């Protein structure tokens, strides 16, 4: 359709509509203006009511959902199990509550937690006694008595308890609080959700004659405006008059089941509760609207508005003005309307053409074609989103492993596509050493690294032996395998581990969980695999551990692995005295109390601990006499005391404490010489396949500490410094012998992977090694 034809049609249509409306409006405006104004006012009031309902229901939904989420939280479960109220579980719960309070600050509520039988309440701001907390939320006097009856009631676990704040509370205190009683880890818990009036009610109503209130049963939970406001008084009168027929005489407590209250305790304008239907009554010169909450079915939102009517004379004057204005401006308005109606089309065509010269064709046909292209692009985008979304099968397996879903075994087989005869399974858990990915690769490369790890696991573990493969988090990967002999599975897993180490240079360890007979018991196998990984310090140098090996080792003799020793030495060298002594005490307690070592094993443990002291002295360049003088000698510490095993390690503990104190005073002065030795170590061993773990073992320091001091003193992390030094040596080899291939140069500088060497060379020299050789 051409522009001129479109304009003509629009002009004729608007002209006819305007003059027709002018003739009709002049005759009926005086009769209908009042009704139209009333309808407009009613519509605005209805929109306001539904907006307020949505605004108020949202924090109610969010708060109740937050309580359900907290019930499933591991931190709250640990706090519920802890009968001694240790500081750590309380701090964990406090941190979670504070995080939630910050995340949901705009919803105007806070969540607090307490054990039913104890005197402490954990809030997002602090921990305090129940007495002080109850005073803050208004749970005093009769409210406190009602609360005690609520706690003692058997119905309390299926209801909510509502506390109305006392008069005279400060502005920063809640206007009402919802209390929910739940069981968590066999511990009775109380959840307090406190709501604040400044976030709930519209402030602008306080300056006018309108009023808004939240009603529960026959109680005003919150209202806007002064107490003497006529609108609030009308709401209270309606409550009193209507509640006499429907409320129980003894309103013992404000309780709700979270979805629907009892019919005998409901304030209503009609005979039945109408969910989602706005109900209206008129009383005392006010129009009063009421809507039920969808979050808590027996809660109501009430809005009182003064009734208004326009005077007859004013309506007549307005009718004449409207008639004359429409009659005079009709023609001009038709022209303007036609032009304004075409403007969106013109702007749309301009955007589609993106500054190109106009084409002599139908504008609407052009728009139709462009929209078709946009729809095709949108379909492609939707397909891309679906490809990257977590597959439902992986989500189903993850729920089975974590125990979030326990369907019958037949249904599990159907969802996972297994044969009806298959039943047994086991969980293989592969773990990248924590922080290894972040210490070796840049942050933006992590997704690609994780994807490649999944590809290597899928490639090397036979499809016939595995049921499913999924990524649990950034460093743990789970393979659900059919019950098969370890002799058949372990070589495949070993191949995958070797491939990850060679290609990505990441340290990997794997653990087999306990085999289960039914697929609905996969959670047991998964937790078994997690437990095996927790005992990895007992298997230094072993990359694959089975549950049988872990159980056997846990029941064996002396337990003091090289990894544990490295941890203690690293803590001492870094000046972390308390952590080192606590870790040492754990080792002694585990060996003396749980292992019940023989005299021979005790002597061996004593010798190993003395060796740890000596290796720590070597790591910090100290001699025995510098720390201990003539107070004792290594031979004296190696001999047991006459009192026997429980106390014979006292001198060694004292020895460690003196060593930690001495190192703590000089820890910063020793960093620079250590870094210099590390740099020399890199220069001497660059041609070998060295890693941060090798540096950690050579200097008896933790990888994190090495990374920190190395970065501070060299300006580069370990991996960047090593690669840069290798590139500099590679350039020297190319100058000496230009005939060397890229692969040969890579091997000379310790890079077994040509692609990795090429990537590093290009990063530091901006050209590939092959082009660099040609330029020489």
Describe the protein.
By secondary structure, the chain is of the alpha+beta class. Helix content is 57%, strand content 13%. It contains 29 helices and 17 strands. A 7-stranded antiparallel beta sheet has the order 3-2-1-6-5-4-9. A hairpin with a 2-residue loop joins strand 7 and strand 8. It starts with a helix and ends with a helix.
Placed side by side, the strands forming the largest sheet appear as 3-2-1-6-5-4-9
- Helical fraction equals 55-70%
Number of strands: 17
Q: Could you tell me the mean pLDDT?
A: 76
Name the structural class. Answer: alpha+beta
Shape: extended
Uncertain segments? 243-254, 257-272, 642-647
Provide keyphrases for this structure.
776 residues, alpha+beta, 7-stranded antiparallel sheet, 29 helices, 17 strands, 13% strand
Could you provide a short overview of the structure?
This protein is an alpha+beta fold. α15 links the parallel β16 (508-512) and β17.
